[in-house]
Amino acid sequence: MASRTVLAHRLFTGISRQHLACLVAELAGPWQTGVEGRRHEARGGARRRAAGAGARHRLVFVDRLVVTLIHLRHDLPHSVLALLFGVDRSTVTRAIGEIRALLAERGCAVPDRPGLRLRTLPDVFAYAQAEGVELRLDATEVQVRRPLAGRGGRRAFVSGKKKQNTMKATVIADRQGRTLWTDALRPGRMHDATAARNEGIGACFQHFPDVEVLLDDGYLGLRRDHPGQAITPPRKGNKISPPEVLEARLRARHRHSSKRITVEHALADHKRWKQLTRWTHRRENLPDTYRAIASLVSDRNTTG
User: Fold this and answer.
1) Percentage with pLDDT > 90 across the chain
2) Which phi and psi angles does 17 have, rounded to 5°?
3) pLDDT digits (tens, 9 = 90+) for 44-79
4) Which of 119, 157, 236, 299 has its CA 20 to 30 A from that of 108?
5) For residues 38 and 215, what is the distance between their CA atoms, to the nearest angstrom?
6) What pLDDT digit, counting tens, does each position of 234-252 carry?
7) For residue 152, what pLDDT band results from cuts at 50, 70 and 90?
């Protein structure tokens, strides 16, 4: 068994000890509630022993949180983590599944608003309209394992852009590159604009007419449907355009790119967690993993 103090260091978990303490205080209650709920369901009724009686967890809640953070940050195998913490591999697997779900449900922190978190796309648009925030939206892809031959829907994960099997995440950030929201991931073959529409961005544009979102050239359809709100860079001039027109459009595209680049910085923050560089586990667990990492990264919104 390795030292618990060493394993809780920022180099392993990716977060500071103060941040870790805040997570413990925030998630310990929901985790204990979930444990008691599962026990109640397994017993089929109320407990008969006194509170505190019975077997103890070999991996206490703080260790479960640290195990999950190390797994998200460095993608260490469950068997290696089990060896470090002196427990069985199945214990680590169960602990990571529990804590990852709790982290994914937290949502993203809001700048200068401690305690307020954004969990849905309407939440983000309502916040942006109330605070006058100009949003930046973009999609990123995470490589996943190829589905087995003969399995239905196999081609849905083949990305036309990367020529790999991927899943696509849509992310919204503000002008300082702070993550505000990420969606449920979609198969990589789906177009960026289609993924955003499936999350209900069209209805959000209608209900929040003052919100502006900066997009790239992959969202020209949204600009057509929601002019003045979905803002993409000006189209490139054709070859017969006067030189001054070409130069003006090039400068406009550069200004737009300079303003939108902050969402790329947010995506880079996410990819610093090794599990999002290439996903080698079950595809159905990737959405919770991405939302969990996004929530951890967004916590810097409240701490600067």
Assistant:
1) 71
2) -65, -35
3) 888 777 766 666 677 899 999 999 999 999 999 999
4) 157
5) 44
6) 887 777 778 888 888 889 9
7) confident
- DSSP assignment, residue 158? B
**Distance, CA of 302 to CA of 304 (rounded, Å):** 6
Q: Provide the phi-psi class of 75: left if phi over 0, else alpha when psi is between -120 and 50, else beta.
A: left
| Residue 228 CB partners (closer than 8 Å, separation 6+) | 212
Q: Is residue 146 within 8 Å of residue 167, measured between CB atoms?
A: no
The residue among 165, 198, 197 whose CA lies nearest residue 286 is 165
Q: Report helix, strand or coil for 25.
A: helix
Give the separation between CA 51 and CA 283, rounded to whole angstroms.
Answer: 39
What contacts 24+ positions apart, CB below 8 Å, involve 182-185? 182/108, 182/290, 182/291, 182/294, 183/121, 184/287, 185/142, 185/286, 185/287, 185/290
Q: What single letter denotes the amino acid at residue 142?
A: V
DSSP 91-106: HHHHHHHHHHHHHHTT
The residues with which 204 forms a beta bridge, in sequence order, are none
Residue with tokens 């392993």: 12
User: Closest Cα to residue 134, out of 177, 174, 180?
Assistant: 174
- pTM for this predicted structure: 0.90
User: How many other CB atoms are there within 10 angstroms of residue 130's CB atom?
Assistant: 11
